[in-house]
Amino acid sequence: MSKRAIAGAIFFSIVAVFLVFSALMTHSFGNPDETEMDQYIIDNSQEEVGADNSVTGVVFDYRGFDTLGEATVLFTAVAGVILIFRRLKK
Amino acid sequence: MIYNIPFIAVVALVLIGLYTVVFKRNLIKIVIGITLIESGVNLFLITLAYRQDSTAPIWHGITASSDNVPFMSLPVPHALTLTSIVIGVAVLALMLSLVIHIYRHYGTLNVNKLGGDEE
Amino acid sequence: MNGGMSKIVKTISSITFPLALIYGLYIIAHGHLTPGGGFQGGAVVASGCAMILVAYGSIWTMGKVKEKQLSILESLGAIAFIGLAFLGLIFGFVFFKNFLIGEGLIFDNPALGLSDIYTAGFIPLMNFAVGLKVIAGLFAIVLVMAYATTKKEAKTK
Fold first, then answer.
1. Main-chain phi, psi angles of C119, to 5 degrees
2. How many C-beta neighbours within 10 Å does residue A55 have?
3. Is B57 within 8 Å of A11 when comparing Cβ atoms?
């Protein structure tokens, strides 16, 4: 086999062993560690934000900067696609 | 250990996607492999948000200050998964338009036959 | 994908397109009460627009809707989103503050779990801004990629 295939096989086997070993050692499904941030958001999200949907309150009010960055990424992707297929008129 | 089945599904998705990226030669197959890795990461973010016997974090009929408040799952990883899905769509659009442009310039989609004209 | 499909497909898809539009706008408008919001509803409407593109052909659709108008719509959505964030800085002295929640102007009922649509401050306005941005952006991506790969002899009009 070529040298590229042997290098690819070694890299793939190292990553596979690491991933399988770490999937068996995480916390069991359904018992995460208790955080105070999520409990505060569940308790106080109806008075401070005023929305019945706690996930929308997190996306647009408590973590609005992530939504701003995501809107920027979407705008950059559309600009890049239109830029690649532009025809210069002669 | 039988209760870690969603994490094993995540590892299976990521490994299949990684195998496709490393060992295949068609450009479209490499793009599909990258999308598979993205789906595995989204599934991992969702499985971090579950608590045993919990419902969706939406208030329906009761307020937060009454008694017998239902047991809810964590709302922050749901928000992170939304952002990750949209970013995956944007990356997929850019990758596919670049593949179209490469095919128009070189005439082939084989990775081993690209980029040899500048010698 | 340059020519359209047969007449039956064109008729049925132009009947089904308003249904997909109303379903997506319902998901966008009730984003603060039920699961959903701007991104999810925008994806539903964009898939309805992609159905119109496939049924009618890319040359006819590009003749009706140029990509310059779509990019103007997307920029309007982004400007509305950032404008609402800056209004929070002017009226509440904190960037991204929910400044409509105690003022008595609009959307200011207290939330009691009764699925009242007149609640939640400026979140419905931001849902509409993000939904408009996602609709215009996804439709522009699909339209440009379909128009640029048509065969050469069909584009000389």
1. -110, -175
2. 24
3. no
Of C37, C141, C149, the CB nearest to B100: C149
Just give the CATH number of B2-51+74-113.
Answer: 1.10.287.3510
Q: How many CB pairs under 8 A join A and B?
A: 120
Structural Rg of chain A based on CA atoms: 23
ipTM, interface predicted TM-score of the complex:
0.86
Contact: C121, A82; criterion CB under 8 Å: no
Dump pLDDT digits (tens) for B36-71: 999 999 999 999 998 888 888 988 888 777 778 888
The structure's pTM equals 0.90
Any chain B CB within 8 A of the CB of A48? Answer: no
Which uninterrupted H or E stretch holds A72?
helix A64-84
Tokens of C116: 């009242």
Q: What would the pLDDT profile of C54-86 be if each residue is shown by its tens digit?
A: 999 999 999 999 888 999 999 999 999 999 999
> C78 — contact with chain A (CB < 8 Å)?
yes
Domain residue limits, chain C: 7-151
